[in-house]
Design a protein that fits this description.
Distance between the termini: 51 Å
Oligomer: single chain
Low-confidence stretches: 1-18
Mean pLDDT: 94
Order of helices and strands: HHHEEEEHEEHHHHHEEEHEEHEEEEEEH
Shape: globular
Number of strands: 17
Strand content: 15-25%
Number of helices: 12
Length: 419
C-alpha cells in the first residue's frame, strides 16, 4: 500500500472515531430543539463555495441548541496540499479564542477571593508599577507622562488598561514590534520586565485597545496559583471537562491532525503560511500565552462553550458559579467606548469576549446578550443565552476574517431557527 492510500485510510479512520465522540449529544431531528433540518443544510454548500473558490482550504462548523448538536460538518481539507480531508478531530490553532479560557481560569481564583476586580495590577505584578503613558510626539521624540489613574485588573480583562499588541504603525505599536516580546527568545521570568519598558498606549480606563492584557492575566494566574498556566488549565478546566485535545502544543502522536495554516499572499491567493506566529505548536513553548497560545478541536471548544451556556457547569462538572458567568458575559464598557471598534457596531465588551448590546445595530443575526470572540487564524464562536444556542466555526487563514465565512455561517445558522 502506498503512502497516499495509507494517509487516506488513516484520515478515514480518524474521522470515524471523531464522529462517535459527539454522538451522545447529537440529534438527527433538529426540529426537536426548534431548528429546521432543511435550513441547516444550507451551511454545507455555503462553506463549500469558499473551498471551491480556493479562498479557504477547508472549514469545520458546529451548531448546537438546548444542549444538542444539530450540525457539525467539515468541508475541504485540513491540509490542502497533502489532500488530508477536514475531519471532526482536526486540531486548530485557536489563537485569541484562548482568551476566554484564560479569563475562566482567572475567575476561578476571583471566586476564591484571591483578587478583586478593582485591585491595582501592581499589587500582584510589581514589575508593572510606575508605567509611563504615550502623550504624543515632539518632533522625532516621544512625549511620555505619568499615569493619572490606577490600572486595575478588570481593565486587563476588558482591554482598557493601556497595553497594545503591535498591530498598527502607531508610535507605541512600533516599539512593540521592535521589542523582544514576540521574538521567541524571551524567558518566562523576563516577560513582564520587557512589558514594563514599553509605554502605555493611553491612560488606563480611557480607551479600548486590543492588547496583551489577557497574557498578563495568564501571568497573574501563575503568580496566584503557584502553577504554570498550562498546569492550572489542565487541573481546573481541561481535565474536568475532558478537553483532551486542548493545550499549548500538539503531542507527537497527534501532529498528523494539526491543520495547515494559510495566509493571503501579495497576489491575493491562499497559500501555506511560513513562520507561524507564536511558533509551530509542535513542542512546549517557553511562554504559555494566555492571550493566544492554545490549540484545540471543535469538540473540545464546544464543551467549553456549553459549560458557559449552562452557567458554569457541564455534565456534572462545575467550573464556575452561575453569577460568575453572568458577570463574565455582561458588557463592562461605558457607553462612550461602544462600539469598541468601528467594525463592531452593536457590540460592547465583557471579560475577554465581545457582547451584543444592540442587536439591531449588529452586523449579523443574533440576540442582545450573545457573546463570543474569534482567533487570528479565522476561528470563531458565539454563545446566545436567549436562544440557548452555540455556533463555532474553524479554519486556518490569516489575516482573520479576510473572507466573510464566519458571518455567512452565523447568519445561516440563525435563519434555521423556527421555534
Amino acid at each position: 500500500m502506498n503512502k497516499t492510500n495509507q494517509l487516506l485510510l488513516a484520515c478515514a479512520a480518524s474521522a470515524l472515531l471523531a464522529q462517535s465522540a459527539l454522538a451522545d449529544i447529537r440529534t438527527t431531528n433538529p426540529k426537536k430543539v426548534g431548528m429546521s433540518k432543511a435550513r441547516l443544510e444550507r451551511i454545507e454548500p455555503a462553506m463549500q463555495a469558499f473551498v471551491d473558490e480556493q479562498k479557504l482550504a477547508g472549514t469545520l462548523t458546529l451548531v448546537a441548541r438546548k444542549g444538542k448538536v444539530v450540525h457539525v460538518e467539515g468541508v475541504g481539507y485540513r491540509d490542502r496540499e497533502a489532500k488530508a480531508p477536514m475531519s471532526e478531530d482536526t486540531i486548530f490553532r485557536i489563537y485569541s479564542m484562548t482568551k476566554p479560557i484564560t479569563a475562566v481560569a482567572a475567575l476561578t481564583l476571583w471566586e476564591q477571593g484571591k483578587f478583586q476586580m478593582n485591585d491595582p495590577v501592581s499589587k500582584y505584578l510589581p514589575e508593572l508599577a510606575n508605567l509611563k503613558v504615550y502623550a504624543g510626539m515632539d518632533g522625532e521624540n516621544m512625549v511620555l507622562e505619568d499615569t493619572s489613574k490606577v490600572m486595575t485588573i478588570k481593565q486587563l480583562f476588558t482591554h482598557t488598561a493601556g497595553f497594545s499588541y503591535g498591530f498598527t504603525q502607531s508610535p507605541v505599536d512600533k516599539l512593540y514590534q521592535q521589542s523582544a516580546l514576540f521574538s521567541g527568545q524571551i524567558k518566562r521570568q523576563d516577560l513582564l520586565k520587557e512589558v514594563a519598558k514599553l509605554p502605555l498606549n493611553h491612560q488606563p480606563g480611557s480607551k479600548w485597545n486590543y492588547s496583551i492584557g489577557t497574557d498578563i492575566i495568564g501571568i497573574l494566574v501563575e503568580r496566584l496559583s503557584g502553577q504554570t498556566l498550562g498546569a492550572y488549565f489542565e487541573q481546573h478546566i481541561f481535565e474536568p471537562l475532558e478537553m483532551d485535545d486542548t493545550g499549548f502544543y500538539v503531542p507527537e502522536d497527534k501532529q498528523d491532525r494539526l491543520a495547515q495554516i494559510y495566509v493571503i499572499n501579495q497576489q491575493g491567493q491562499t497559500v501555506p503560511m511560513e513562520n507561524e506566529p507564536l511558533g509551530d505548536y509542535l513542542s512546549a513553548p517557553e511562554i504559555e500565552s494566555g492571550g493566544g497560545g492554545l490549540v484545540s478541536t471543535i469538540e473540545d471548544y464546544y464543551t467549553f462553550t456549553q459549560m458557559l451556556l449552562n452557567g458554569g457547569e457541564y455534565q456534572g462538572k462545575r467550573i464556575l458559579g452561575r453569577k460568575t458567568v453572568e458577570y463574565m458575559r455582561t458588557n463592562h464598557l461605558p457607553t462612550s467606548l461602544i462600539p469598541f471598534e468601528p467594525s463592531s457596531t452593536g457590540e460592547g465588551y465583557g471579560l475577554a469576549m465581545s457582547v451584543t448590546v444592540d442587536e439591531q445595530g449588529a452586523n449579523t443575526m443574533g440576540s442582545a446578550g450573545d457573546y463570543g470572540w474569534a482567533g487570528a487564524a479565522s476561528t470563531y464562536f458565539r454563545i446566545d443565552p436567549k436562544e440557548q444556542m452555540i455556533v463555532i466555526s474553524m479554519t486556518q487563514l490569516m489575516p482573520s476574517s479576510y473572507f466573510s465565512y464566519n458571518k455567512d455561517f452565523k447568519n445561516i445558522a440563525y435563519q434555521a431557527l423556527i421555534d
